[in-house]
Design goal:
The protein is built from twelve helices and five strands. It has 209 residues and is mostly helical. Strand 4 and strand 5 form a beta hairpin.
Length: 209
């Protein structure tokens, strides 16, 4: 109620000069509109932010660090993109923890491991856990099996991995579950009969379960 009153009062807006920005996923925005439709009209136009290209990700990291006295090693800069794939929100959280963990102005492999754990802890309740929970128990079993390494798995390789773990899932049910996981956006079908977990950060989250 307070936000609605403030946003609809021209006198308050002109005198304070406050800028209200609401960031959300498309699904989160749709849920917000359903619950707070009258307020939604104040947040226009809508600006969609897409994942950044690798070169832009590295450039932003480099420019942000200028003048701070802190340096990210080449390995860390590469890892920022590998784990976030240029997702602005995830990149901001990971880089913030990397910066906080710096040792004498240097951020290297040791700091990356700590920052990654902190990033997963922060993202788990708001993004990763809900995403993971959309999978059934059998589907989670498949995810656990393919999270051992972040790579593309062929169908037969997934089947063999499950058998090695003494999990009895035959070809028919496995094909159905892989299709469902792809529809949910948890797996990516890179080509016919080949799958991988959607991104490395989510893969790391599952592997640590």
């Amino acid at each position: 109620g307070v936000l609605k009153n403030v946003l609809s009062d021209d006198d308050i807006l002109k005198k304070t000069g406050y800028l209200f920005v609401l960031a959300a996923t498309e699904e989160g925005w749709s849920n917000f509109l359903r619950k707070n439709h009258p307020i939604g009209r104040y947040f226009v136009p809508i600006l969609k932010i897409y994942p950044l290209l690798k070169e832009n990700t590295l450039r932003i990291v480099d420019e942000t660090l200028k003048g701070t006295g802190v340096i990210f090693t080449h390995e860390v800069c590469e890892a920022v993109y590998e784990y976030t794939e240029g997702h602005p929100f995830q990149m901001q959280i990971l880089c913030s923890y990397l910066y906080e963990n710096q040792m004498k102005g240097i951020v290297g492999r040791d700091q990356l491991d700590s920052a990654l754990s902190q990033t997963l802890d922060e993202l788990s309740p708001i993004i990763l856990d809900p995403f993971y929970s959309s999978a059934s128990e059998q589907e989670k079993t498949i995810l656990q099996a393919v999270s051992v390494s972040f790579k593309t798995y062929a169908f037969d390789e997934i089947l063999q991995t499950l058998k090695s773990a003494k999990l009895r899932i035959t070809k028919g049910p496995l094909s159905t579950m892989l299709s469902r996981l792809t529809e949910k956006g948890i797996l990516v079908k890179t080509e016919r009969g080949k799958y991988r977990i959607v991104n490395r950060l989510f893969n790391e989250f599952i592997a640590r379960k």
